[in-house]
Amino acid sequence: MTKPAQWEFSILNILNKALLSTLQSQEYEKLLQSIKTSFYNRDFLSIFKEPSLLPVYVAEYVPSRALCYYQLFMESEASPILLDILKGKDKNIPPEIVCLGKYNHDSFHYSNINLIL
User: Fold this and answer.
1) Residues 19-27: contacts with CB within 8 Å, 24+ apart?
2) How many CA atoms lie within 13 A of 88 on its CB side?
3) What is the mean pLDDT of residues 58-62?
4) Residue 38, C-beta contacts closer than 8 angstroms, at least 6 positions apart
5) DSSP sequence for 79-99
6) How far apart are CA 37 and CA 63, in angstroms?
7) Cβ distance 98 to 110 under 8 Å?
8) End-to-end CA, the chain
9) How many DSSP H helices and E strands does the chain contain?
């Protein structure tokens, strides 16, 4: 097994352990179908307003995204450029990460997180 494959396996293993109870839930498929229906209807807010849907959303969509981010930051040709930006080496681009989807009961907000490397 190559080093990247080992890391990918480790990432998925950690997520599987963290999400095991959700993945084994008898309600998982029903709740997942509700999420997919909301996506199809472009009713994104309904997914994130319903607490029972959040663990299923995480279990279904976070693993693939985690692997994508891993590959983007660790294995792609863009990774040195991205890391330089995040380290603040390019003074024209501030080193920050924008997190979307911070929810309160009235509306969605975004947060800026300054990254210190």
Assistant:
1) 19/55, 19/58, 19/59, 19/62, 22/55, 22/56, 22/58, 22/59, 23/59, 25/56, 27/52
2) 7
3) 93
4) 44, 46, 47
5) HHHHHHHHTT-STTS--EEEE
6) 21
7) yes
8) 30
9) 5, 2
The C-alpha atoms of residue 53 and residue 46 are separated, in whole angstroms, by 9
The whole-number average pLDDT for the span 85-103 is: 61
The pLDDT of residue 20 is above 70: yes
User: Are 48 and 56 contacting, i.e. CB atoms less than 8 angstroms apart?
Assistant: no
**CB contact at 8 A, 15 and 63:** yes
In 11-115 the beta strands, taken as DSSP E runs, fall at 96-103, 108-114
The encoded tokens of residue 27 equal 């309600």
Q: What is the pTM of this model?
A: 0.64
Distance CA 24, CA 54 (A): 15
